[in-house]
Amino acid sequence: MRILAIDTALAACAAAVLDTGRDAMLACEVRPMQRGHAEALMPMIEQVMTQAGLAFAALERIAVTVGPGSFTGLRVGIAAARGIALAAGKPVVGVTTLAAYAAPLFDTDEAIPVVAAINARHEHVYLQIFGRGGYTLMGPRLASLRDAAQRAAASGAPRLTGDAARLLASAWPAGEPAPSSVEQHPAPDIAWVARLGAAAQETGAVKPLYLRAPDARPQDANRIPRR
Q: Is 183 exposed, middle or buried, given 0-12, 13-18 or 19+ CB atoms closer than 10 A?
């Protein structure tokens, strides 16, 4: 499967083309940025498609991060993915930023729980807790930093990842086992957005996962697919 992956959810604009049949990343571009995703994305997509040597019609799927993340960034990425999918006659699938953060950790070790956390500002985070093998223990939600730390600590000594990993670690409850590791990343790895997109089931229309009322729609995925 040849898949175009797009991520504009957080502090980066990224696009990549993955060929799962060859297990090869054909092209990948990542540019850190807080703003300007709308201006940067389409030229970046054109660049990775040129590097991959593919026409849009040669793709079999488009994957895009659907959140949680920046409201503006999510709209930019999802609109681009929908437009390309419509023009090329290809399906589009959504990948949550929390799953994309967690997936590479389970690729190296399936036994230790993972907590993915994204800074929602004002002492709140978006988080999801994954247990052994990538199974969801707690689905995506918005929580206060204190509540998030208590819920995360209840899973044992998990690995923390996301752009709020250090923030979550700083609020860790006293007396609880410390996190096994803390990995701070400003945005998920676009290669893993592509891999999760290749493994995802097609569900029709792709919508943003905002997790803030009145748009909160937590989605509990059963399991993070492995490579």
A: middle
Tokens standing for 116?
């993915």
Q: Which CATH architecture has domain 109-184?
A: 2-Layer Sandwich (3.30)
Homologous superfamily (CATH) for 2-97+187-199: ATPase, nucleotide binding domain (3.30.420.40)
Q: Please say whether the beta carbons of 114 and 102 come within 8 A.
A: yes
Report DSSP state, residue 175: T
- pTM of the entire structure? 0.92
DSSP code, position 183: E
Q: So where are the chain's domains?
A: 2-97+187-199, 109-184
CB 145 within 8 A of CB 169: no
Q: What percent of the chain has pLDDT above 90?
A: 89
Identify whether the C-beta of residue 150 lies closer than 8 Å to the C-beta of residue 105. Answer: no
Q: Please, what's the b/e burial string for 64-80 (b: 16 or more CB within 10 A of its CB; e: otherwise)?
A: bbbbbbbeebbebbbeb
